[in-house]
Specification:
By secondary structure, the chain is an alpha/beta fold. It has 3 domains: about 10-45, no CATH class; about 65-295, pyruvate-formate lyase- activating enzyme (Alpha-Beta Horseshoe), CATH 3.80.30; about 300-355, OB fold (Dihydrolipoamide Acetyltransferase, E2P), CATH 2.40.50. It contains 9 helices and 17 strands. Helix 4 runs parallel beside helix 5 (about 160-170) and helix 8 (about 230-240) runs parallel beside helix 9 (about 270-295). The N and C termini lie far apart (about 55 Å).
Amino acid sequence: FERAPYVDLVMGPDGYRGLPDALENLEGYRSDRGSNSRIRGPQLAILDLSLGENYQGLEQRRTEGPTAWVPIQRGCNHRCTFCIVPYVRGPEKNRDPLEILNEVRDLTSRGVTEVTLLGQTVNSYTSMDLSFPNLLSEVARVEGIRRVRFTSPHPNDVTPELVEVMATEPAVCEHLHLPAQSGNNRTLKRMLRRYSVEVLLEKVEMVRAEIPEIALSTDIIVAFPGETDEEFRDTLELMRTVRFDEAFTYKYSPREGTPATRLPADEFVPTLEAQARLEELIEVSRGIQAEINAREIGRIDEVLIERAGRYPGQILGRTRRNKVVAFDGDSERIGCYTHVGLERTTGATFAGKETSQPELVGQS
């Protein structure tokens, strides 16, 4: 408030239910003072953490479109030393599966055919004796749903049961986001990730054995406090070994209140070195992505048309394997499925040509 005196209200996510009362109080004060008053009104901060809040019963408001995010979980039981989520959102709390399924059914009535289940460690979900693989299967079988994705999973909960559902439920897309964070065991231990590089590679092998067409993406943090150049090289080696289709890359950034900020000051990687590591990681990652995508030229994939493209007469869609494709078409067809031949790639995205007439939403 000192830095932004013009702000009337600051509210954290746990304060949603009290928003109407807070706005009413502010408006009441303004009415009492009169519209021409030059006296600064009250400033309200509602930032209390409610460990029991899971947004049960709160209606989701969304923009129109064929895809939707469906939160199924709040908080996190892990304590990764770089992450603030457990301290601001509390421990893991999972939504009632019946409420989730009802929300998905309601979305289909609005024209949504693809949903993404969302949670901090989404695949650790369990509620009313229903595990995440069970829930994923139930959502995939909702009438009108053609595609299901989920993010962001934790490697430890990528189980044979989950992989079986991914391999056998037709609506579950052939894409898995698998946050590695680092390719060095000592760094992973200091991050408190609770798995080793060897375990991560076993998970990758298991998934690819059951779903050969799977596309894998990941998150990587470089320059975590104490990371040596040799340990950074281990991360580059992991990237070359797994060959992720896409990587979201970051250099370590201190978050106030997290354990990593309390590590010895002399262990923090200098800014210039951290930036150099990030740039090298990006170069390796993009090179691998470009090689993978170049080999996919000539494929014909099912594409869900999601939005208008950058240029007039162009539309953008996404394949089941989470590849973005631009091709000629009318934006009025957003929400339709079609097949597109992949003709060119920029390294990250594709340009293609439609090979069939678009299907109507909901048709098989």
